[in-house]
Model the fold of this input.
Amino acid sequence: MTNPIDTAKKKLIAFAQEKELKPKAIDLGDKAVQTLLRGVAGRVSDKTIPYLNRYDNTGFMEGSGYFLAAPAENAGWRVGYAKASILPERVQGDLYLGGYLAFPPNKAAGALTDLMVRAFAFDDGSERGINVFAVVDCVGISNADIRRIRALLAPLCAEKNIVSINISATHCHSGVDTMGVWGDLIQAIKKNPGAVKSQKKLGEAVSGRNPDFMDYLFETAAETIENAVNAMAPGQLHYALLDAADFVHDKRPPDVIDPYITVLRFTPADTNAKKIYTVLMGAHPTCYGGKQRQLSADFPYFICKKIEAAGHEAAFFQGAEAAIATDRGKHVKGQVSLHNGIVQYGEAIADYVLGTEESAFTPVEPLLNVIVRETFIPADNALLALLGKLKIVTNNLTKVTNGEDGKDYDLYFSTEVGLAEFGSTLKFALIPGELTPEIAYGGALTAEESYNGTQWNYPALNTVVKGRLSVIGLCNDCIAYIVPDNDFGSVFAPLHYEEAVSPGRRTGSNVAGAFIRTAEAAEKIRISGRPGSEDII
Done:
């Protein structure tokens, strides 16, 4: 069945193009829709949303506590890896595919590939604790759900001194709906206002999330992380930067990509143990399209499968991929089916990684610094605010008073932004959504080129840290698209789809500002010795 929302949007865009409407005229339609949605959202009970001064941040993990400027004495890497399927043998109720809005919603009809959770545990030997990085084959995971996984691991964290657990999504659009948006929205709109109002009936709220599946995901992720921690062993860490230009392209101006595929490789000291490859690349796993009914992890699955077939372990992490699409043309040989073309594309990336000369790999000193900070993003997009108030999605919402009487408030998403440093040169921005690459790497549109005719006044994130900065996208949350403020336009304008599922026009500056402040905070806690040292860098 044709998606009526997509059809209506296409007609509006075509009308705007035909009439050569100016952005301000297009904005009137956008403003009208937002006003309507804001009115609907205002009628939904807000009793389940706490005020900021009552916000419970249980489950937040701040990271290393302090940063080291150099490896500790006698430091050495210990790394553990584990993986598991998140597809249970049986699930009560339907599974919806997450990624494409459809009426009626897309129910899963079997599985084309497995869906996995893969976890790494890192210890640099500095006695500051273990840091975990995990990734799930799904469209995204909310911060609230990540904190549920952390809660399951609280006893292990206390026992093993785990100081951060960072969980991201590969963002495959043919996995299970883990966000809640792609289920039966009509039923949700009918039932959820009453369930939210009574609070006692919150369990009856309708969402695309299958509760039975989500519980299985939480338990499996926690067990996999525990297995990774228990599997930690000594070894050497290396990284390589591979040219990404032949594999991806940007669908939205200003045509900026992360120029590299970042590869992190762990070689255990035990020569009988497998090497572990981590592949990070910014590109949407949307290869199967909206007509797909079978669950699949998309091209990242075939990257990992090919590396595993070569006798190693592998994981894929998503990068800065807001409007970045795969460029499969030159990697697909012959007249093949869509599926086989996706297989070839994933395998081409795996071959590229495995064929990299040893001289291209740089040793990573045994030094791991992690800092994560909570940040609050204005929920200016009335659609996302409505989805949150209706409990269709589980993103954390908070109320911030904006009047003297305390009765008027603004809604904010509470989320996390972080920085991880591996050695002295390799850095990772932990970003809770789909970041436009120009925010990370520069090249944002000028005032004359941008939708709003204003300047983007933030430095590229890679200029505020020393060394190479890669982005781990959809990390510790999924707040969707993060677009520079100066080019945040109407969803009815051509090439501005991303704004439909972005928290709002201030999201870019809020996330960029939060990362810059986090990087600055890292420098304030960086020392050359142990805590108490007066030698602050």
Remarks:
- Confidence is low (pLDDT under 50) at residues 531-537.
- The longest helix spans residues 23-42.
